[in-house]
Amino acid sequence: MGDNIYLPQLARVSYIKEEVAGERAIKTFRLEFAEGEGFEHECGQCAMLSIFGKGEAMISIASAPHVKTYKQFSIMRVGRVTSAFHELSVGDVVGIRGPYGNSFPVHDWRGKNLIFIGGGCGLAPIWPVIQTAVAQREHFRDITVFYGGRSPRDIMYQAELEKLRGAADVHLSVDKAEEGWNAYCGFVPANLMDKEPSPENAIAITCGPPIMIKFVIQNLRSLGFRDEQIYTTIENKMKCGLGKCGRCNVGKDYVCVKGPVYSWDVLKDLPAEY
Amino acid sequence: MELILEKGRLDDWIAALEGWQAFAPSQEDEVWGYRPTASPVRLDHPNTVQPPKNFAFPQREVFFRFEQVKGEPPRLTPVEPDAARNVVFGVRPCDGRGVVRMDTVFSDHVEDSFYLGRRKNLAYVGLACLKPASRHCFCKSVGGSPVSTEGLDVLMTDLGDCWLLASATPVGETLMQAAGALLTEPSAEQRMELARRHEEALARPQKSAVADVGNAATRLKDNFDSPLWEELGKACIACGICTYLCPTCHCFDLNDEVSGGKPLRGGRVRTWDSCQFPDFTMHSSGHNPRDSLGSRLRQRVSHKFRYFVENFGTPQCTGCGRCVSQCPVGIDIVNVVNRVCASV
Amino acid sequence: MIRIEDIRTQARDILETGEVRAVIGWRRGSRGMAAEPVLISQPEEAESLVWDPTCFHNLSLNLVQERKRLARKGMASNKPLALVAKGCDARSVTVLLQENHFRREDVYVLGVSCEGSGVLDERKLARVLDGLTPDSAAYDGDDYVFQTEEGEKRLPAREVMADRCLECRSAYPRLNNAVFGEEKTRGLEAPFAALSRFEQNRGAERWDFWKRQFERCIRCFACRSVCPLCYCEECVVDSIRLEVTPETTADEKANRIRWIERSASRSDNFGYHMTRALHLAGRCIDCAECERVCPVHIPLRLLNNKLEREAREKFGYEPGASVDLPALVSSFRDDDPNEFIR
Amino acid sequence: MSRQGDWNLNPMSETYEPKIVAFLCKWCSSAGSDLAGVSRIQYPANATPITVACSGSVSPQYVLSAFKKGADGVLVSGCHIGDCHYMEGNYHARRKLYLVKELLEFTGVEPERFRMSWVSAAEGAKFAQVVRDFVDDLRPLGSQDKMRNEPT
Q: Could you give the 3-state DSSP secondary structure of residue D125?
């Protein structure tokens, strides 16, 4: 009982990369524990990041569990804390506590085809799953990644996505056609329908803007995916990460504990308050 | 342990509780609240405006302090929860049941060191409600009783010229033992009087009642999409009275309060928050999963009568009636539950 | 003497003719004696309207809320909304019009001159009834009549009337489309009587008093929520930016100044209540709803009254007197007080 | 941990120096304070100047915030009536801040803690006098604890 569960550990920023510029800028940060014991995490879990004087924000851990030297976060600049993150330089020290929430049952998916469908900064929460699947390539069958952004400049992890090719089928898209873009033009759910992945022995994992998720799920079901083959994450406003503060409460679940990962057959029975 | 305390000796008992800071309901500007005891302690209060929730879950609490010189790593200083031993007198059985529900929330999944740190040093001496403490009491219809000992360490019952004290926990026994010779064995008549008064209290009807609490969770689930929510929520003004005065509402906010700039200094602070405030669930993007009055009323009512039941097998609401009596526009949770549950 | 039948008839008529989209009034409450605000849109619902001493709510709040609700849904109304308004409530409608929150043609005022009968102060009543809990309240001449578990209780209205009604200077709703009751005000006490009583305290006594009040505040924001003139989409005490559109930049959200923290500490509570009072200067029309709803009995009316009286005495300004008034703090006179300035 | 930084808190100590936050109109009072400086007029260094566009731009929130952050006194100084660069800003300031002053006094805050002055760019000596008087009036009151943030 003596443990102060709200006290963050300290972590040093070891790497910063600007993924997307502009008003909806996304930067990737790698944090190395500077003090304290650190922690291990599983695919899909989140951490509460602090900038002292600004506050905390819950961010999904974008690095795979087997990466032990750092935790990676890709953060879109939207509010007080995330803007402060975008001001950071390598070497700065921030707060981190976690890991929070449940995780993707990656182990149970061995022997299956994995289909990832991401949009915008929604690639980050599923990225550790992709990395894990690629690292354990022999345990999985086909790996397919659908990912789209508003424009070519909104595509994050560009180099990493290119590196995936060979290990996975990668289908990129942008919302609007543009000079020099050779891949698919249109929304992510449409790209999905265009490629028609088979539900046979497959798991679909999707993350992105709520409206995209809604249509992706609709389309997956029309392709014959059953509810329990579809996984997504929901990210409500969170303050404590410990199932107390009530912010992320949806139905009987505190998403920070019971989520953020849900299979559609579970999620569809919760109120759509996310 | 059941013992008798003469009416005039209550202050002596409180004085005998060495090492404990005692609190009891008193009035300040006609506001009944728990304050440090001042002789004479009467325990003739109606429902206090606020439940004794503050003792374990204060409205404002600092978790740690930070200090950071620009360009250097921050220095964090954790804060320990206040270790004072507090004993609270005059707690109504509904609020005692509220304590149990708060304990559940703050112990479930991960133990909240701040809540439990205070809680382990807290004792509640209850007071049986021989008549309803307010016209809006409905404890009996939500599984409680005016003489329930749930969450209480001692239950006091007014027998006219004396109190009968019944311990409900080992802590309660300790408190009673501290009274020494002040407490005497009850006579057979006094025991009978106690039974008679409790029976009477249990039999006395309450003006307000949740019609069928056993089926409320199911009915609320069935009627999640009912248009009644928006209709009943229409009058709501989105203030925090119902939640801040509730013995079981536990939602909170965390903020950094900055007290100095060079070097940066401040603390991370927990403050109560309310699901009835429009910004409670709003994302930074502006997206708000519960953006209407009806959806927020539904959240409050469903949490009390459905979600808590689904997780812990009992309604969260203890029927104290505060959210009803204090609502500026007369929204009555009993009426809401009954209407929604009865709708097809 | 106001006959509720008259109000019902008028409400039914304007709903039947389609002159208004809905009528905001009071109906019997579900939790006991007090009436509750209701918005009716069907002529037959007019029968449910009531008029009694528990009609304390200032329904111009519901006018503001309804407008916001429609705006959020991206809907506009092409028909006016009617509300039943006492003299005080009508003044807050005037301020809303003055501040261009509505156009005059969007509001239909069913004015009720309470003729100085006032409304009930439930706390005063509780003191008098000592445990009895009435089921209903009614006007009867100079009395209020209550039905309780021990039968009928009749009390002189002035014993249990809200302070602001005792001090009422104008019970007649000057702004109206229809009016019920006569142009009559009782003024049982002098204007600002409660304020004057308080001002007999000197500096240290005043601070002792307000310190206690501010320390008791739990920041439930009921005072703000119930105030028809606290209509700002976003308040200085909100911890985050509330108005977020797709155009809102991250900078705007990140750089929002937090003047007042969420903590219910004395200093933050002081900041909150002072800011609120100052923002209501020249706007508050003394409906005293903030004071009525405060669960911890902070006499907020005193703060608002103080500024109201200063505005009246020093600047000749009367909030809610006319739609054409400029705002108190965006106007001035050459002879405004200057002697306090060095 | 002290949230007051290096501000001297002990009113009884010989070295207690009241801390003043001074909102100065950039067209006159700010220039007046500069003039006091370049003219080498002796006056106490207790005031932290904050230059604002116009006394009319001083929101009551600024005053309250200065007190909340621990100011012992708040001064708002602008152009003389009739001399406002924006024609009427100081008229607005006068009315608005009169209300602030009244409300502070009403709640029991010592009236000496809030002060306004009209100081033109040419009145370096007057500015010095205003600050001198303010410090003298504040000193006996000791530190301001009513509106100040409680320690975190």
A: helix
Domain that holds residue C277: 190-324
* The model's pTM: 0.94
Structural domains in chain C (count) = 2
Which of A193, A187, A270, A194 minimizes the C-alpha distance to A232? A270
For residue C285, name the pLDDT band (cuts at 50, 70, 90). Answer: very high
- Write down the architecture of domain A9-100 according to CATH: Beta Barrel (2.40)
| C185 and C240 share one domain | no
Chains linked to C by 3 or more Cβ pairs within 8 Å: A, B, D
Q: What is the CATH topology of the domain spanning A106-233?
A: Rossmann fold (3.40.50)
Q: Do B281 and A237 touch (CB under 8 A)?
A: yes
How many CB atoms within 10 Å of residue A14? 15
Q: How far is D105 from chain C (nearest CA, A)?
A: 7
State CA D80 to chain mean position distance: 16
Name all domains of chain D by residue range, CATH numbers in brackets. 20-141 (3.40.50.960)
Q: Taking residues A123-146, what's their average pLDDT?
A: 97
- pLDDT one-digit tens code per residue, A5-52: 999 999 999 999 999 999 889 999 999 999 778 999 999 999 999 999
Listed by start position, the domains of chain B span 2-342
Interface C-D, measured as beta-carbon pairs within 8 A, has a size of: 105
Q: Which residues of B touch A12 (CB under 8 A)?
A: 73
pLDDT, residue D6, reads 40
Strand locations in chain D, DSSP E?
A: 20-25, 47-52, 73-78, 114-118
Minimum CA–CA partner of A80 in chain C: C254
Q: Based on the fold, state whether residues C29 and C146 are members of the same structural domain.
A: yes
Instruction: Please list, in sequence order, all residues whose beta carbon lies within 8 angstroms of the beta carbon of residue C247, skipping any fewer than 6 positions away.
Output: none
Q: Do B77 and D1 touch (CB under 8 A)?
A: yes
In a domain, C342, yes or no: no
pLDDT in tens, B235-294: 899 999 999 999 999 999 999 999 888 899 999 999 999 999 999 999 888 889 999 999
| Contact residues, chain C, for D94 at CB < 8 Å | 332, 336-338, 341
